[in-house]
Amino acid sequence: MTGLLLASTSPQRCAILEQLGLEFDVVAPAYDEHDDGLAPVEAVRVHALGKARSVAGLAEGRPVIGIDTTVVLDGRAYGKPASPGEAAATLAALAGRGHDVVSGLCVLGEGFEEVAHDTTRVVFRPLTELEIAGYVETGEWEGRAGAYAIQGRGAELVERIEGDYLNVVGLPAALLLRVLRRHATRSP
């Protein structure tokens, strides 16, 4: 492969691809997310596909990657909070409990289109109102599904994880590498 096209402007996703040693270019997806009553797993898969397809015309024969991530607790998706109050409410709901970080992944290229998802279990330690307020004050919750960034100060909220840590950061790396390997031998 001569490189990938990432349908995301997320600095975390870019950092993960760099960490993996993959060559890529970034294009902001032209896709408007609408859940339309979809279950969380189906929603992230649909959004990942939509993001990838929205930039596929710019791929010039390179594989395109689309990703969407959400946090799921008791069947409810917790996306990116719109306000400090919403962030605090999300963190209060997650406090002392386990939740799933679910990422949809789409890789499309010449002659193939694969959509998959990965789930990582994250357990938060019990949190006080003061701890939640202190974290919200950092602003780190902004633009983050579930209102936290595990790779930053949000690590102090977490008791343990089960699964792909990089999935929680924003890109299911192990899944991506499996999909890329599957399609590496295909000729255009």
Task: Please provide a brief summary of the model.
Helix content is 34%, strand content 26%. It is of the alpha/beta class and 188 residues long.
Evaluate the radius of gyration: 17 Å
Write the CATH architecture name: Alpha-Beta Complex
Note the gap between the termini: 11 Å
Strand content bin: 25-35%
3D architecture notes:
- With 188 residues, the chain is an alpha/beta fold.
- The protein has one domain: Maf protein (Alpha-Beta Complex).
- Helices cover 34% and strands 26% of the residues.
- The chain contains six helices and seven strands.
- Helix 3 packs across helix 4.
- The longest helix is centred in the first third of the chain and has 16 residues.
- The protein is elongated, with a radius of gyration of 17 Å.
- The chain starts with a strand and ends with a helix.
- The relative contact order is 0.17.
- The mean pLDDT is 94.
